[in-house]
Amino acid sequence: MQSVTFGIDVLANSVWFFNREVTRDLVIELRDYDNQANGLPYTSVWAKVGTLDAGKTGWQHLSVTIDDTSVLGLPSGWGGYGAEDAQGNPFLPSDRTFASVLAGVDEVAFTTLVPGFVYGFTYFDVAVDNISISPVPEPAQGGMLLAGLAGMAALARRRARR
To answer: What's one Pfam family here (predicted)?
Structure first.
């Protein structure tokens, strides 16, 4: 099981919709352009990372973690895109899994557009910084790291005594 965290720092100065301040969800979308389905431009999985809110002062760190990148079904809070039902609601095509989309990611997009839904006429004054993709260390790796640091500390103490 491999875990990964996607993070971004945002500063929402203003988010306007028809002359009034609003909030918008910030979404991460992991897109696979090589496996298009159903006439749509790509297949993807997506999740809400946080909310852009100009009422909050200062920078915000927003992130989402995928606990297991080998899972087949969509984890809680995640959606899929690559097929649509009769009402135009997006879903992951039946021949694709969460893991298969992750294995073929061509683009990572932070956006306010949830796949399959349209939002228009919104003015954004938003700054972004520190976009990151970080593997989450496994517990065994953390233990090995601590053991290594303890060994180095013991060696340093021994050398200091000499």
So the answer is: PEP-CTERM
The closest of 127, 78, 114 to 99, measured between CA atoms, is: 78
Residue with tokens 């039902």: 85
pTM (two decimals): 0.78
Write the DSSP string, 32-79: ESSS--TT-S-EEEEEEEEEEETTS-S-EEEEEEES-TT-SSPPTTEE
Pick from 66, 62, 82: nearest CA to 74: 66
Question: Quick one: average pLDDT of 138-155?
Answer: 60
The Cα 99–Cα 32 span in angstroms is 12
Distance in angstroms (rounded) separating the CA atoms of residues 24 and 59: 16
Render pLDDT for 57-109 as a digit per residue (tens, 0 to 9): 899 999 999 999 999 999 999 999 998 888 888 889 988 999 999 999 999 99
d(CA 65, CA 50): 12
DSSP code, position 21: B
| Strand duo 107-111 + 122-136: pairing | unpaired
Q: Which two tokens stand for residue 110?
A: 């932070």
- Contact status, residue 81 vs residue 1, Cβ threshold 8 Å: no
